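LAB NOTEBOOK - FOLDING QUEUE
OPERATOR: T.R.
BATCH SIZE: 2
PURPOSE: Compare the predicted structure-token outputs for two unrelated chains run back to back under identical settings.
PRIORITY: normal
REVIEWER: second-year student, initials M.K.

ITEM 1
FIELD SEQUENCE / FIELD STRUCTURE:
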Amino acid sequence: MSGLRDTAVEALDATGASAELAALACEIAEHDRRYHGKDDPTISDADYDALRRRNLAIEQRFPELVRDDSPSLRVGAAASSKFAKIRHALPMLSLDNAFSDEDVADFAKRVRRFLGLGEDDLLAITAEPKIDGLSLSLRYEDGRLVSAATRGDGAVGEDVTANALTIADIPHRLAGIRPSVFEVRGEVYMTHADFAALNARLATAGALAPADATETAGEDDEGAQAPDEAAPDGAIGEETSAASSLKIRQFANPRNAAAGSLRQKDPAVTRSRPLRFFAYAWGETSELPGETQTEVVEALGRMGFSTNAVPQNGRSAPLMRRLETVDGLIEHYRLIEAERAHLGYDIDGVVYKVDDLALQRELGFVSRAPRWAIAHKFPAERATTVVREIVINVGRTGKLAPLAKLEPVTVGGVVVSNVTLHNEDYIAGRDADGEPIRGGRDIRIGDTVEIQRAGDVIPQVVDVVLDKRPPTAEPFRYPDHCPICQSLAVREINPRTGRPDSVRRCTAGLTCPAQGKEGLKHFVSRHAFDIEGFGETYVEALFEAGLVRQPADIFRLGTEPLQAAIAEHHRALRDQREETEDTLRAAQGLAPKPRGKRKDYDYSTVTQNLLAAIDARRTVALERFVFALGIPEIGETSAKALARHFEDVRALMDGVAAARDGQPGEDWAELSALRGIGDSTFERMLAIGAAKAAEADWNPLRDAEIALKSNQRVALRERYGEDGAGLRAAIAQAAAQAPGKGFLKLTSDGEIGTVATLSLIHFFEEAHNREAVEALLDAGVSTTNERAAPPPVSSPVAGMTIVFTGSLEKMTRDEAKEMAEKLGAKVAGSVSKKTDLVVAGPGAGSKLAKASEFGIEVIDEDAWFARIGRAGGEAGSTSGG
């Protein structure tokens, strides 16, 4: 997908746009989940905003391709399963972003144009800081707080009422007016001083705790859970006190600290944290105490809330202002930006809102955001420091990820000592297409670099200060073998550009120690072997005990060593929990907690249950087996596609061997990937060249049958010379190196493709990967495969291309796709002239309109079941394994 994303939106065709929209929907959903649901973002705000902007640009160019799961239609992420749910009476929407003064001016013009206002007509807009915390909605009935909910996905949030009641800034009863219903919305945050004090307290406790008890702040900081003393079957118990519920770890930033502190199962933990709350908006109300944004926010202050409509932190003027010109908005933005470092809490921009509530209602909403508001984001903060070391980490899929160790430097109030260097091209000063970045300046050990915390989250290197480069600094030599297991590390060839992919991966796969533990977690995960009760905790315990180092070991576990390892694991958890409790008590000046005689439990039942669960998964669907291997680029979709092509594991391995033998040569790959040369032109060149390549005077650059365009001639001349002889030779060599049937069998399947095929080939080229698969088969693991069965000859939809759209009520989207494929149909994600049938549920939108435009038959779910001769109640999942 990186190749597609390098293509300008204007240059995308419908196929490429559809593929990229699907990838963006998945990628943005994962970032939403990590930010809103896990409080653990992995990309910067700026990079996230760039993904959303590209998604929107593609949708605007191809409105018929807008997906049902489009990020432009979604806010936040699904609420966590550990909390009860609250449905918001009115959705908690997000805001569109502005990144320049011109964007702000465009916002004002759009508002005026929508309202029919002239340049001289009054348009008042408020400007206030954009607090960087966790959004919260508080519902008051007759003035009393009855519930508190996080944003969640915008429609449904997490019930954190008990925790919100512990925050001093949140009144239990409203002062002054008390409407029958009033929802107050704002941001839970933590000041810089309180954040530093919290981290110092955790650091003090962590210094006294065992090394393995200290972690990096991530999702939230719920307590380290351990087996309940009254549950010898291994059930997991809840935390019992604020002390026992605190893991000893530090937070990355105040936003994570605030979010993790609020989203606690034990309100006592939240009470112990210095959380604060700013109110700036509202949801459902029975009456509004004002007719403008300014008036209602001022009323929130009178109700007992902290707001930016009144002076804060000793300021003489409020930070929320009502302004009537774009120049006034920009001036106030600059003022807040200048004050940013002195506010005492994190903000990441300024929010502008049309002040008149009647105009807000007239403007309404578009997609996931209101038309009457926008967030003007701050540019990233920067600092300079020195690269002390560059280290290579190896991830679950074998990715060799470079990390720079820095002289610690403070950027925007956060100490940065590590920064990702992304990949070897980034270190060398070039992008994925070989074009220079940072002016072509590479990054070396000893270099002085400029660091940016984009969006105040993830630091990155933005430039190298060459005049400070020491004489001893040498270009970094990126390893071509895994630094852990010494296996070959390769960069796959990008079929679009003909250049190596940006990621280099270890090819050892299942047998690389760096990948082993994480690979095993993937192997037993829900969409892979899905072994009941065999979660990540047991994977780690058995891996550390040396009992499970590769997947086949799981199916060779003996009763006695397994039971001993389980018992030792639970004892260690109990010891760690108690030691953590004592450490925290000591840090607070308290004596250790008295404990009676410890009882060792009989874990035989747990052991037998686990062995039974393992035995039950000795036979799985082939698609699960393939997905479980953790082969880079092989996800669930491509694993299911492979299961359609091969009966079992050995047939798959034979098919991959055939694909390897049928790989195209370098000349074929180079010519086919040359920019400007499309598939049809390439095929014409090869077909004509097969007949004419031996003619010494044949010049393919001027051949009328090939019909090259001017830009294609330029590209070919630049690569192969002016006289046509070089191109003639290249065509002859390419024709002799064309891919074979085994290779084309996989690459021609749109759900597998070239990149995944090459990844399969590299995986099975490594002897230890083949041995690990053979070991699984020798351990008694076998596969079933319903997908490989030929479709029924009598199927009424065999050979048809079908699109499912809208909210399907009698089957899930996956069930619908699987059902159609088993009947011999192809399921597409977008409507085109090649579509034969559209099955539409409630809420179908642009796809339905496109079907009407092309004259494509549209039916509902009942008609679908009638057509395939199946009752609607028989639409359950048919997936194997």
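ITEM 2
FIELD SEQUENCE / FIELD STRUCTURE:
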Amino acid sequence: MTNPTPRREAIVPHATYRVQLHSGFRFTDAKALVPYLADLGISHLYISPPLRARAGSQHGYDVVDHGMLNPELGTRAEFDELVESLHARSMGLLVDIVPNHMGVLSGDNAWWLDVLENGAASAYADHFDIAWRNADPVLSDKVLLPVLGDQYGAELEKGDIRLAFDAAAGAFTVAYHEHRLPIDPSGYGALLRLAQRALLPGAMSGVRVNRLSSLATLFDRLPGRNETEASARQRRQLDTVRLKDALAQHVREFPALVAAIDQVVGVMNGRPGDRSSFDALDALIDAQAYRLAHWRIAADEINYRRFFDINELAALRMERPEVFEATHRLLLELAVSGAIDGLRVDHPDGMADPAGYFERLQLRYAEMAGLPAPTGRRGDGAADLPLYVVIEKIVAPHEAVPDDWAVHGTTGYRFANVINGLMIDGAAKTRLDRVWRSFVGEEAVDFDTLAWQCRHVVMEGTLAGELTVLSASLLRLAREDRRTRDFTLNSLRQALAEVVASFPVYRTYMLHKPSAQDRKFVDWAIGRARRRSLAAAPGVFDFLRRVLIGRPLTGAPVGLGVRYREFARRLQQYTAPVAAKGIEDTALYRHHRLVSVNDVGGDPDAFGMSIDAFHAASLDRSTRWPDTMLASSTHDAKRSEDVRMRIDVISEMPAAWRLTVRRWSRLNRSHKRTVDGERAPTRNDEYLLYQLIVGSLPVGELDDAGLAHYAGRVEQAMLKSARESKAVTSWMNPNLAYEGALSSFVHALLGRRERNLFLDDVQGNTAVIGWHGALNGLTMAVVKTLSPGVPDFYQGHESIQLSLVDPDNRRPVDFALRREMLTEARSIAAMPDRSAALGELLAHAGDGRAKFWVTWQALQLRRDRIHMLRHATYVPLEVRGERSANVIAFARRHGRSWVVVVGTRLSAAFGLPVGTAPLGDCWGDTAIVWPEGAMPDCAEPLLTDAVSGQRHGTHRETLPLAEVLREFPVAVLFSADAGSHDTPT
């Protein structure tokens, strides 16, 4: 597959569709979707990581080989066929990539196995971020392997850790259940001499025995693991391969040698009950470049950087050119060939230098494509970048993505929270807070305090080891200047933890000197930490601030500033996982006031978003990041967009909700158990459960099998939430009694249909909440699709998809149903009078067909007018009248071409019966005001036949909502200028 004339300018998608690839959904399955996606109006298929991952991976983020596609997803030919199918329909491919880490510990990562075999002498030792020098002599020149289910000595003496020999490969390994760990080849000689002595007399000729002795000696003479000379390391690598091949040949030719080696291995493996029989194996394991250990000690002693706290994902040193080249060669070759149009970069905050990585990515692509070096981005949003790149980054509301990063934007977490906030009644925050606190009592904690507490929880738990290393490094820096040398390790550790817990963003990005934004966030964190730590040693926070901005005291020792900045860069890679684990994976699972705001990048204190704030965010995006991605659901979402749209409705009825949850709690109190002297589940978990149920209960009647399946999904989501919260149970220390009580409670509530007062009650309430949630979803769909940016659709979410946290949100999608919806939508679009058909869609909005109609129609307009929309300005539209708070309206304008988008919000405020949408006269005197006086003429409605009189050129200064929203609660009007229609690109 070739692309003889690569484009200098990136191919920016006009709409993307994300699918999760795994062994049950392969390249061929994705190819089968292409015609449907083309008809839907999608320009780019957006796939999860396609490189070879750990066997059975459901997500692809545990890559073990960057040089090949994942065989579980299909062959290279099948991948090429997928690309060809996309290109045949003028579509392209966007690929998720994982540069920050690789999957390890499972014996399928050749780089990692080489590190375990050769230690610091491995050609890949510097690919991974391993601290080979350690204050603990037990870990000096070793990597910790926390894979054991019990203490090392116990596992060894049970016989679960064993020596093994692979005759075909000529290799010895340490086996522990599914793990196969290489041993240092320089130790093979001693084992071969033991085997030689175990040979029966006459089993091998004297010549052969001498050759075996020579082979053992050659293994002995291999350069050691601590060799620093490149030539010695290379010789060790080459000679190891040659000597293993020779050993494999020996055992093939002489079965007696295999028997002798097996005898040695059997003796080495010891006899349970005889402790001394394991001494030889213990000594052999102790001589390796790794330390086998119980999995629980990883939190305190891990000496390789991980992805967050996941031992099986080891971080890569992407700042090293050879690592970048090895991990990106195949992907960039595919991009240069035209197979890939763009990349989604996973977790760049884990890298030492994200900005440098983005620049290198664009530059290397340009070099391989024979293009001039890109000049990058400018502050006005323009970009000279040859490859479309978006980054997975959580951006706080008070944070700006640096304008000079060589990317087109982020993956849209911020937009997901913006659009969700628009559907929340912000005025209800105090009332809902009282409802939550009244229900859960002391379990309710304000979110700012909770986030601070939970960051401390992870720093004292799963990320404690990294904090220890950083504190020791900070102590060494303090000792280099006599004015700071009296700070103790304890005082520095406490102050450092306080600063990390107080950071207002995930991380800063200082490389050589801090930006103004970096300095602001450092000062913010220092100030908050100082206020919370009144007992801290005087001056310790001043010292920390100087370290974090790389500014030692005047007269400090030469080079100290450089070392300060090195420490600051290292700390930046720590604050991000602390924030992720402390906030995303702990605090957001404890704060349950309104859980629709508790999602990736969300802030429960940012309760709702005003119309003015929404316009401001859209204007900023239009100006600074016009090609960024717009998401509303992702594979990382804790709850799908449609579940959130439902839960948002609770904000419109806090009084009714208070009475409802009280009634449900009384109905269900007999289903609770007593665990450790407390009623289980907790009131906070119970409060969460009720929100999840009203947010996700399927529309229509459920038979017993359907109800049981649904109960299992809710149970799974609740158990994950309870473990992530770390309040009563956790992944590290499961409280099985509590989890049993929680599961029992869920199934008691949802286990049967007959004579289930709770289920009858909840279905009635869900009918109300589900109706208004479905109306919210219509507005969300049209606003997202036609806002500045690139709308992204997570698999299945073009219609209603009531999914909970993964793995629930990765369930198979019913694409056959969605194809039927597409056929129906086309039929409606062709009708001369669509009113009755649209009324039918709206009356059953909860089944997802209305959302599909809106999505499809908006995507058709976006595809047909992509040039206009990509260059259009964003124009907030003023709305006046009694219902002005219940509508969002904006225009996209480019020259004489324009598109007006109108959506209903907070529909429960109309007080209409379920099934009756706020249409026509419900809007009273509410009207949209055109900002420049008389509206342009020739307006065409997209979704309905409303405002048809506008086609005839009637100039007006306002658009009455009673007319615009006469048939449907959302509307799109567009200019009918002949020159405004694009040719799809």
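REVIEWER COMMENT (ITEM 2): Residues 446-575 form one domain.
FOLLOW-UP: none requested
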